[in-house]
Amino acid sequence: MPKLSHTCRALGLAAGLAAGAYAAAAGAEDPMAESADPYLWLEDVEGERALAWVRERNAQTHAELAATPEFQRLEADLRAILDSEDRIPAVEKLGPYYYNFWKDRQNPRGVWRRTTLEEYRKPNPRWETVLDLDALNQAEGENWVWHGAECLKPAYERCLIALSRGGADADVTREFDLTRKAWVEDGFFRPEAKGGLQWIDRDTVYVYTDFGPGTMTASGYPRIVKEWKRGTPLAAARTVYEGRADDMYIAAFHDHTPGFERDFVSRTIAFYNDELSLRRGDGTLVKVDAPNSANKTVHREWLLLELREPYQAGGRTFPAGSLIAARFDDFMAGKRAFEVLFEPTERTSLAGFAWTWHHLVLNVLDDVKNRLAVLTPPAADAAAGAEWTRAPFVGAPEFGTIGVSAVDPDESDAVWLTAADYLTPTTLSLAEVGQAPEVLKRMPAFFDASRHVIEQHFATSQDGTRVPYFLVRPKDLEYDGTAPTLLYGYGGFEIALTPAYSAGVGKGWLERGGVYVVANIRGGGEYGPRWHQAALKANRHKAYEDFAAVAQDLVARRITSPRHLGIQGGSNGGLLMGNMLTRYPGLFGAVVVQVPLLDMRRYHKLLAGASWMAEYGDPDKPEEWAFIRNFSPYHLLREGVKYPPVLFTTSTRDDRVHPGHARKMMAKMQAMGLDVRYYENIEGGHGGAADNAQLAHMQALAYTFLWRQLSR
After folding, report:
1. CATH number for the 9-78+449-710 domain, one of 3.10.560.10, 3.30.450.80, 3.40.50.1820, 1.10.10.60?
2. What does the alpha-carbon distance between residue 225 and residue 236 come to, in Å, rounded to a whole number?
3. Is 571 a catalytic residue?
4. In this predicted model, what pLDDT tens digit does every residue of 577-625 receive, in sequence order?
5. Which entry of 266, 571, 611, 632 is annotated as an active-site residue?
6. Residue 450 catalytic?
7. Contacts 24+ apart (CB under 8 A), 433-438
8. What residues does each domain of the chain span?
9. What is the pLDDT of residues 156-175, one digit of tens each?
C-alpha cells in the first residue's frame, strides 16, 4: 500500500477492506461460465423482452431521481448551458468560408452553417445555413445525427456527408452540392454500415464499408477498400486492398496537398499496430517500412514518426515517445536519416503537433501542463545536413489546457489556439506563427468559479509510482473529511486527461460546494506511451491501483472520506468504475458507471469489442483469461460484500460498447439485493445522448444521484 499519513486510521480500514475484497475475488473459482450466464438474453439489444426490462428500470430510476423540483431545476440549467448562444462556435475553413455545426433548443439535431472570417470576428456573426438536420429529419421521417463532412479540395463544391441514425457508429454517406446547398441527385451514396467514403477526385472515391457477407472484420469494421467511379453501381467498384478477417480496419485516402498528391492504404491490424502503404499509379502498394507501433504522418515532403517503442535506424536508437522526421522520398528509397524533433523525459510527453504551411507546432505535456514550440524544417532545396530550427511560440497562453490546430496548412501559417482550465472558460484565438495571437472569442462563465481553486497533487501508487491528479476545491474548504467529492478517471488507450472547462461539472457539482478531482492514472497518455503501456493486459491492475491511490490520498489529506467520495467514468472509464466498485467497495460512497465494459469474458464478441484485445487481452486464450478474469467486474461480484450505491447509464444505440454490459451487471446486482439503479437512453450512440436535451437529462440524473448519496 502507498505510504500515507499514519494518523488516518479510516484510510487504513478502507484500504484493508479493499484489499480483502480483491484477494477474495482473485482467488475464487471462475464463476459464471458463458453457457451458465442467466442474463445473456439482455444482450438482445432491441429484443422486446430486453427493452421491456429497460423501460421498467428507467421508470424506477426516474421515480427516484427525476421527480423532484431540484432535479428539474438542474436539468433546465444544464439544458440552458448546452443550448446557449454564448458558446464558442468552433469553425473549419473550407475555401473562402468558415463552417460550424451548431445545436441549440431551436435546432436540437443541429444546423451546418457558414460565415466569413470578417463576420466571425464579430460578437454576433451572421450565419448562412447550409444544411438543417431537423428539417431533413422532418422531411424524411428519420432521426439523423451529424457525423461530419468530407469536402473536395480545392474548389470545395462537393462534400461527402455522413449521417447516423440515432447516433450509432454505423452511418450512411451522401453526396452534397455545397454551391447549391442540396443533395446531389444520383450522387455517391454509401448504405448504412461502419465505414466511409474518401474523395480521390470529383468522379472517384475510395469506399470501405459492408459489401456483404465476409467483408467486415471480426471487430465489425471494413475489411475491404475499393475504388468507385461515378455513375457505376457500388457492386462494380474495383478492389484496392483486402485485409484479413482478424484485422481491425481497412481504409484508403488521397492526399490532396498541391504538389504532393499521393494515395495511401491504411491497414489497422489492432490498436497501436498498423501498416501504411503508398499506392502507386499502377495500383501497386509499397509499404512505408516504419514500425507498426508508430504513428505515421506524411505531410508534403516529410515523414513523421511518433514512436511507441524504441526504434533503431541509421545507426541510432530513438526512444519510445520520440517524434522523428525524415524526407519521405528518401525514406521510401531506403535512406534512414532522421532528425529528432521531440524526445520525452520523465516528466514530459508529446501531446500532439500541427502542421502549418511552413512550420510544425509542437504541443508538449510537462507534468500534464501544455507547452508550445515552433519547429521549422529546412527548405526543399537546402544543402544536405541542414537542420530543423526551433523557436518559442509567441504569445502562447500561460494557463490551462492549450489546443492548437492549423487553419489551412496548404495556404497559411495561421493556427487556432484554445485555452481553458477547470475554472476558466475557453478562449479562442487566431495566431500567425511568430506573431501575437488575436483573441476572437471568449466563452462566458456558466457557473460561479470565484469560490474555488485548482491544485495539482501527486499520490503514490502501490508499486511506488508517482501519480498526478488535479483537485478543484472551495477556497474555504474545511479539512474535516466531509466534503462531497467527485473523482473522475479513464486510464486507457493512451488518452490524457487535461484541465478543461466543463460548465456541466461547474453547475452540477462545483457550484453546490463540491470538490472535483481528475486522476491521471496509468493506461492514459499523460506521460506518453510508457504511461499507457504500463497498464496493458496483465498489468491492467496498475491503473486501478493508481486510481485507488488517488482516492486514498484524498482521504489522507482530510479532503473527504469514503462515505463522501463518489466516482464517475465512461467506456473504458466505465470498466475502471466497475473494478473500483468490485475491488475497493469500502473506499467509495457512490459510483456512476457510464456506457461501460463489464463482462470481460464476452467483450470481444460484442460489437467492436474484438478491436480492443491489444488493450485488454484475448479471453479465449486460457493464459490471458487467467489475468483478464481479475479485472472483469461482472465476474468479481460476490455475495455478502457491502457495495456502495451505483447508477448505470448507457444507450440502446451504442454500437461500439454493447449495452448488454451495463444491463447484465445491473440485473445481477439487483438480483443480489444491492443498492443499484439504471438508465438507458434509447438513442445517443457511444456518447450516450443524441441531442442537448438527452445530454442534460443524463447529466442531471448523475449529479442528482451523486449529491444525494455524498452530501448526507
Report:
1. 3.40.50.1820
2. 13
3. yes
4. 999 999 999 999 999 999 999 999 999 999 899 999 999 999 999 999 9
5. 571
6. no
7. 433/356, 433/358, 433/359, 433/361, 433/374, 433/393, 433/394, 434/374, 434/391, 434/394, 435/394, 435/395, 436/394, 436/395, 437/394, 437/395
8. 9-78+449-710, 205-287, 293-344, 345-445
9. 999 999 999 988 899 999 99
